């Protein structure tokens, strides 16, 4: 990777990925692509930014030509819970946007990374130690678009030689950017509420185990896979990756170690609960470990301490 375009650069993953890519590859070599919300602060000031709507192929092509882009990170998506209320938009962005990126990549010789998700699995998938290669029949538009995206990535690699690679992200936890309508958002919200109110009402029920990952590991995975030796990749689209698995009770107990008077109750959201029940409790990520050296650095204990410290500082500064 030399010249990189990040589409969806102001999103939860994109905002942090763009800054890390600039740190590694140089500020001027990473373009922050955005649609409606213009980047601010360091994201805007540290490097180039361009309007790039994933559903507009001409905009993608223009930026690729202007900056001689060789790698596209396409992060444009409507997340799971929001996607159920806007299925057509979710499909148009998730698949229409990906098709545009793949077509531009085919014409101009770019590599493409578009993340998949645990949402690509469904209730008929083995929920425990979910295999890399298994049945995938999701019950959400978000999941349907992710499965289709994986198939498209493999098709463009085999048919046209486009260097496509992707990971299946679990729930992503970050102290920088707030979540945007995903089923696993509770695992971010709980930390903010613990600091602000010392109480949290969880929308998922006790015993709902889900794979999770701290943002620094998610960023490393996105970059490490694209840097991996292609001759060692048996799979491409998409690799299971995970770092930890827990339910709401476990994360609440970990928070209570630092905030003893923190309490949590439940008001289960039927839609989110139904989605969560169809997703893996834990994934087998041995293929990612074997083929490109995936090795997460953060566990729940270490992440909780870092999350609480960062969010407490933001709260003291009056940022939320």
Shape: globular
What is the annotated CATH architecture of the largest domain? Answer: 3-Layer(aba) Sandwich
User: What is the average of the pLDDT values?
Assistant: 94
* Main β-sheet description: 6 strands, parallel
Overall tally of structural domains: 2
By CATH, the superfamily of the largest domain comes out as NAD(P)-binding Rossmann-like Domain
Summing up helix and strand content along with how strands pair, one would put the structural category as alpha/beta
Q: Classify the fold: give the CATH topology of the largest domain.
A: Rossmann fold
* Helix-strand pattern: EHEHEHEHHEEHEEEHEEHEEHEHHH
What percent of residues are in strands? 5-15%
First and last CA, distance: 37 Å
Main sheet: strand order: 3-2-1-4-5-7
Number of strands: 14
> Uncertain spans, ≥5 residues at pLDDT below 50?
none
Put simply, the count of helices is 12
Relative helix content? 40-55%
In short:
This protein is of the alpha/beta class and 320 residues long. The protein is built from twelve helices and 14 strands. The strands form four sheets. A six-stranded parallel beta sheet has the order 3-2-1-4-5-7, sandwiched between helices. It has a three-stranded parallel beta sheet with strand order 6-8-12.
Descriptive overview:
44% of the residues lie in helices and 15% in strands. With 320 residues, it is of the alpha/beta class. It has two domains: 4-171 and 213-240, NAD(P)-binding Rossmann-like Domain (Rossmann fold); 172-212 and 244-282 and 299-316, Alpha-Beta Complex (UDP-galactose 4-epimerase, domain 1), CATH 3.90.25. The strands form four sheets. A six-stranded parallel beta sheet has the order 3-2-1-4-5-7, with helices on both faces. A three-stranded parallel beta sheet has the order 6-8-12. It has a three-stranded mixed beta sheet with strand order 9-11-13. Helix 7 (186-196) crosses helix 12 (300-316). The model has no long low-confidence stretch (mean pLDDT 94).
